[in-house]
Amino acid sequence: MNPVKTGGKDELRTEAVQKAVMACCLCQYRCRILLCICTPCILLGCLFIYITLAVCLSINSSTTPVGMPRNPPLPPFFIASGLNKSGILAPFPIKSFWKYDLSKEAHWNLIQYVMDRQHSPILHPGTNASQNISDLDRYSRSTQQSSGCFPNYEMIWTVSDYFSLPAQIQRFVISMHCRDYPLLIDQPRVCSKHQSEAPMLLLAIKSQSSNFENRQAIRKTWGRSGWVKGRVGKGGHVRRVFLLGTNHSGHNPGIKKNLREESNRYGDLLMWDFLDTFFNLTLKDVLFWDWFSKNCWDTRFVLKGDDDVFVRTPALLDYLNNMEAVRSNTSGQSKTMEDFVVGDVIASAVPSRLQSSKYFIPDSFYKGMYPLYAGGGGVVYSGALVLRLLQVSKRVHLFPIDDVYLGMCLQRLGVVPIHHPAFLTFDFPEGEAKEHCANHTVLLVHKRSPKEIQKLWVETLRPSRKCRNTVLRDELLEKKKKEQEQNL
Ligand SMILES: *[C@@H]1O[C@H](CO)[C@@H](O)[C@H](O)[C@H]1NC(C)=O
Ligand SMILES: *[C@@H]1O[C@H](CO)[C@@H](O)[C@H](O)[C@H]1NC(C)=O
Ligand SMILES: *[C@@H]1O[C@H](CO)[C@@H](O)[C@H](O)[C@H]1NC(C)=O
Ligand SMILES: *[C@@H]1O[C@H](CO)[C@@H](O)[C@H](O)[C@H]1NC(C)=O
Ligand SMILES: *[C@@H]1O[C@H](CO)[C@@H](O)[C@H](O)[C@H]1NC(C)=O
Ligand SMILES: *[C@@H]1O[C@H](CO)[C@@H](O)[C@H](O)[C@H]1NC(C)=O
Ligand SMILES: *[C@@H]1O[C@H](CO)[C@@H](O)[C@H](O)[C@H]1NC(C)=O
């Protein structure tokens, strides 16, 4: 600023004095601010230097002096201290519960491990454990080839001994990523309501196009659709579908025409466009679950079985009605049936390693035990469970053996199948078949020819006086056990 020279000397002097006073005030003021700001800065600086020195010193002192033992290497897994085998406390993990070396894993275990990791709520906390269906749908679509299911030949190199394996497992390995097969014959109205009441039981029977005789026997006997009276109880509405794949191997167009006619006549065939082989049976499960969720979702029970079983449908309806009553007695009604599955439960099974066996699963494909599962000859589960199975199946890679696959899905849902001795998926134990009323003690028995099925139906529908009051095998076995205990 340039002072305008208008006044005399005095004026200039006073101005200078004023300026000096102002400057002095300003200086004091600045000094105070400087002091205010700088003191903490200086203190912080000191602290910083102190900490730096302390850290440097401690690093220096922690480098092992000559002669002192070095720290042992970190253990490969963490063991919480304070727990050991001797106490009442839980045993500590003596090895890690996650996998270290995946290179020795079998093919299925390896790809499932990857999928399990992708859905782990610990590794991926963002993904909800009760993830919604559309998320899962998107995932399953992205892992499949959406435009048709072509063999994935890259898989050949992930199974160490692929070229020495039997053809059926080879075929499974290159096609197991796909479960997107179109429905060729549909029955959208099978589960339509009868007087506003949804069916009680849907019979879903695995058949093959050539097994016309078996289907006829079932249609005429235990698989009749409509209202079925219970043996003692009120019974329920029963519906029936046969689950079929295609048979392109024969190049026999006649079969296709026959099947169309059969389907028009009986309205009970479901056919998907995949090859109907033993190792493709799991496809029938997952595709049926999908179909069920769209067409039959309010049906209360499903029996999934082979077309060479005999089922005492009236007795089964009594059993199921009873189970519903018992469960709704104890707590809320619909929820309690969500984990209902009953059959011939097999525990601690291991894969067959016999090359000649129909069930052969090589070591390079699957390692470990099978989960608890119900024999695939015939198993009954609730409709509510089907919807859950469909969801969880999108996170479980297909496995060649269908009942084991169901077990794998149940395991992931935390559902334990109920064992019922009246489901005889391996026929009677020796000697028991000869007992006079044996045929009246079962709910389901495997294997029976179409002729036997018809004979059994007549026999069990009108029991002789002696067999009229025969109870199911589970009660009989318990009675025998009690008698034995008393004799001891
Ligand atoms: C377990 O802990 C107890 C008490 O803490 C100790 O006496 C015992 O030696 C430990 N056993 C083992 C196997 O470490
Ligand atoms: C997970 O989903 C449930 C039900 O859909 C919801 O109530 C819950 O808040 C979700 N949790 C997270 C972390 O998103
Ligand atoms: C389910 O996921 C879709 C897509 O991520 C999302 O738009 C939708 O809001 C989700 N629904 C629920 C109930 O979380
Ligand atoms: C396929 O067709 C052939 C010839 O018609 C027949 O022998 C074979 O049993 C059929 N297989 C199945 C699974 O239906
Ligand atoms: C299952 O069916 C598909 C489609 O027809 C076929 O490509 C595949 O080879 C079949 N798998 C087995 C194990 O037969
Ligand atoms: C339901 O509970 C009642 C009382 O506890 C009992 O009397 C009845 O027998 C039960 N019904 C069934 C089907 O278990
Ligand atoms: C039980 O059924 C079988 C057919 O599966 C039949 O051969 C047998 O005679 C029946 N038993 C009796 C006691 O009727």
From TrEMBL:
Cofactor field: Mn(2+)
Top EC group: transferase
Pathway(s) the chain acts in: Protein modification; protein glycosylation
InterPro entries xrefs: Glyco_trans_31
Any one GO molecular function term: N-acetyllactosaminide beta-1,3-N-acetylglucosaminyltransferase activity
Keyword Cytoplasm included in the entry's annotation: no
Reaction(s) catalysed by this chain's protein: a beta-D-galactosyl-(1->4)-N-acetyl-beta-D-glucosaminyl derivative + UDP-N-acetyl-alpha-D-glucosamine = an N-acetyl-beta-D-glucosaminyl-(1->3)-beta-D-galactosyl-(1->4)-N-acetyl-beta-D-glucosaminyl derivative + UDP + H(+)
Membrane topology (UniProt): Single-pass type II membrane protein
Coarse class of the protein's main subcellular location: Golgi
Keyword annotations: Glycoprotein, Glycosyltransferase, Golgi apparatus, Manganese, Membrane, Signal-anchor, Transferase, Transmembrane, Transmembrane helix
Membrane-crossing residue ranges in chain numbering: 33-53
EC number: 2.4.1.-
Family named by the database record: Belongs to the glycosyltransferase 31 family.
Protein name: Hexosyltransferase
Organism: Pygocentrus nattereri (Red-bellied piranha)
